[in-house]
Amino acid sequence: MNEKWIEKNIDSFAVKPNLIDYEKEYKEFDWEKVESEFEGLRCGGLNIAHEAIDRHANSALSEKTALVWLGQNGERKTYTFGKMKKESAKFANVLKTLGLCKGERVFTLSSRIPELYISVIGILKNQNVLCPLFSQFGPQPILQRMQRGDAKVLLTTKKLYEKKIIPILEELPELRFILLLDSDEDESEKVLSYSRLMKKASDIFEIPHTDFGDMSILHFTSGTTGMPKGVVHVHKAVYTHWISGKYVLDLHVDDVYWCSADPGWVTGTSYGIITPWIHGVTNIVDEGEFDGARWYKTLQDEKVTVWYTAPTAIRRLMRIDSEPTEEYDLSHLRLILSVGEPLNPEAVIWGEKKLKLPIHDNWWQTETGGIMIANFISQTIRPGSMGRPLPGIEAGIILKNDDGSITEVTEPNKEGELAIKVGFPSLFRAYLHDQDKYDKCFVGDWYISGDLAYKDEDGYFWFVGRADDIIKTSGHMVGPFEVESTLMEHPAVAEAGVIGKPDELIGQLVKAFVSLKPGYEPSEELKRELIGFGRKKLGVAVAPKEIEFQENLPKTRSGKIMRRLLKAREMGLPEGDTSTLED
Ligand code: ATP
Ligand code: MG
């Protein structure tokens, strides 16, 4: 037992965790058995919308709240599973009446309003493919994605339509309809009012036979490392959502669950819509953007029990430096989770201290469709580790050989590429229109993630960095995450982004971009102090040799530090695709 590890005392938990004996559960797991957790369609097959909404609406949960919507300006609306069934049936009928066929793509571009969530379910019911866009994209990224995704229908709001769609409309000849979620009048034969169509539609819709392998969602990646890729998922991915909801989110039917991710990103659909609902759990949706006080108040007022968020949000809360448990009643909260980029050990420990709960890091990608590696509520946390693979998931560390073959690393603590054995249901089925890139992700039985990691003696995985971000300095390989996490241990540091800057003598020089906590000012003295701090903790070879202060680091709109941009700017190179760069 390491003194930094966070041990769990299950006897003190108010709710008995779904997973208690990790090893046993892992050994005995069988994907075949997951099938019995689903009702399936009467006409055969499996459809996510049925499992998420209709089956509950047809059961004792019909009057239970499925969705609690918190409007930006303090409004609050609730929808039962029964109501969601009817409303989404209406929308499925709308799509059917508009002549949309199975497999055709429906894009969404909207802030987090209830109509968006209703439509998502309706789209899946009518066997259309959901393609969520992030509402803060500008016209060009929207155009690119809609063209690449073969958009047939777009759902959006009047304001977004006027500002972002009109300028690109001529370049989308294949787009048949635009439905305005908040407009009572049709604008033209092509631009229609959602509410008018909904009023005319029947609230009964029988979902047609849907195959496990039918396409359900097309998601674009975050664009952290380059041009976003269109990732294709199928209805069967819901198996992974179900097991991760059980084991990782530890969902119990009485939970009140909040996922702060926007459905424009994969976490916001897989875990902000599908997973809570397939477990029959009440799902909180907040229309507002990040705001520390508002978020704490939401956790308190809605009595949230399970909260899924991201490192960037945690770091922002850390910056505020308050005593949340003294100011708010967070006593209902029993589990906090984070995903999206590495969670610094400092953040895990901050949670333990300030929120009275550690933060459970977990790892996955748009491509894996669901959580693959996680810290489980009942298991010891080793801060800085992403945890262990879910039952049903085999993760490994592999090395690529020169002849194109691979070798699985068997010794502990040796770095290599993080790979997942193929065969789990939510693995993506294609990069849309890019077979070549897709094929390159697979070697033998392994899907190669593009991230570097190592596995310790006990099977815990530790993130090192993205393969593209690894720094080669004086013959050493340095992962940016380790350096960033160490810098964050210094009281002045709020955030750090580390890159390798080309250097004639040593190959690459470790350079850190640092933003400071309130109350600290950039100075030469502080730079020297941070360099010294790094050296003491990391050794001279790994510690940053250069520090640059920046008020805010460049991030994707989903909150990930864009190291490739820090590097391009440092080297005066073109910035590449910046469609997902935060304003
Ligand atoms: P792109 O593929 O377009 O560059 P992206 O990889 O950021 O963008 P996502 O699929 O949203 O797009 O993110 C998945 C990636 O996020 C992972 O491959 C990993 O690099 C990072 N990530 C996610 N969770 C974690 C985690 N818990 N620890 C470390 N890294 C994480
Ligand atoms: Mg990626």
Give Rg in angstroms. Answer: 24 Å
The mean pLDDT is: 95
Q: Look up the CATH topology of the largest domain.
A: Rossmann fold
What's the structural domain tally? Answer: 2
What is the CATH-assigned architecture of the largest domain? 3-Layer(aba) Sandwich
- Structural class determined from secondary elements: alpha/beta
- What do we call the CATH homologous superfamily of the largest domain? ANL, N-terminal domain
Overall geometry: globular
Oligomer description: single chain
What is the number of strand segments? 28
InterPro entries: AMP-bd_C (IPR025110), AMP-bd_C_sf (IPR045851), AMP-binding_CS (IPR020845), AMP-dep_synth/lig_dom (IPR000873), ANL_N_sf (IPR042099), Mitochondrial_ACSM (IPR051087)
EC number: 6.2.1.1
Keywords: ATP-binding, Ligase, Nucleotide-binding
Pfam families: AMP-binding, AMP-binding_C
What does this entry look like structurally?
The protein is of the alpha/beta class. It folds into two domains: 10-16 and 33-452, ANL, N-terminal domain (Rossmann fold, 3-Layer(aba) Sandwich), CATH 3.40.50; 471-571, 2-Layer Sandwich (GMP Synthetase, Chain A, domain 3). It is 30% helix and 24% strand. The strands form five sheets. The protein has a 15-stranded mixed β-sheet that branches. A hairpin with a 3-residue loop joins strand 26 and strand 27 (507-516). Helix 3 (48-57) runs parallel beside helix 10. The longest helix has 17 residues, at 81-97. 52% of the residues are buried. Residues 221-226, 228-229, 266, 339-343, 361-363, 365-366, 386, 449, 451, 463, 466, 560 line the site of adenosine-5'-triphosphate (ATP). Keywords: ATP-binding, Ligase, Nucleotide-binding. InterPro entries: AMP-bd_C, AMP-bd_C_sf, AMP-binding_CS, AMP-dep_synth/lig_dom, ANL_N_sf, Mitochondrial_ACSM. It is an enzyme of class 6 (ligase). Belongs to the ATP-dependent AMP-binding enzyme family.
